[in-house]
Amino acid sequence: MLKELKVKIKNLPALENKLKEIGAKFDSELNATDTYFKQDTGLVLKTVEDERGNFLSILEAEKGTFVIKERTKLEDINSKKEELSKKFGIHRILKKVRKIYNYKEFKIDLNLIEDVGDFLILVGENPISNIIENDLGLTNPEYVRVPFSEL
After folding, report:
1. Cα(96)–Cα(32) distance, integer angstroms
2. CB-CB contact of 138 with 122 (8 Å)
3. Full domain range(s) for residue 103
4. What is the pLDDT of residue 46?
């Protein structure tokens, strides 16, 4: 099962240079809109709209990471958003640019979120802080333990 480990980015240009230095392979850049629905603490239910399509994502906080419980492609996002809004209510809508890299067995997903900040998400079976602190050289990283919708 895939997990996410999130960190606040303090210096985006330096981090992007470091990704090149260590041989991370740039994959894509996407404009995305995430619609978060009201959930209990530790649960995330959101729809994601970007150039690749529309998705439903369900995540759960676990020991400092977020476990990706479900990620499903949606054919009709408008009806799904309407259904979820009626059932749970919309918590927050976030617009962002995502810059995606591949490094070792991980996906590094830079999220540049309007009015919230810049973040790195390390995605893999076992995302570990060693990659963030040693490979990427981020000293005293500020780990994010809550959904972006809570920031």
Report:
1. 5
2. no
3. 3-150
4. 98
Cβ atoms of 107 and 120 within 8 Å: the answer is: no
How do residues 41-84 score in pLDDT, each as one tens digit? 999 999 999 999 999 999 999 999 999 999 999 999 999 999 99
Ramachandran angles phi, psi of 77, nearest 5° = -70, -35
Q: What is the DSSP string of 76-117?
A: -HHHHHHHHHHHT-EEEEEEEEEEEEEETTEEEEEEEETTTE
Structure tokens at 19: 């990704």
Q: Give, for 18, the enclosing helix (H) or strand (E).
A: helix 12-21
Q: What CATH number is associated with residue 70?
A: 2.40.320.10
Q: Count the domains in the chain.
A: 1
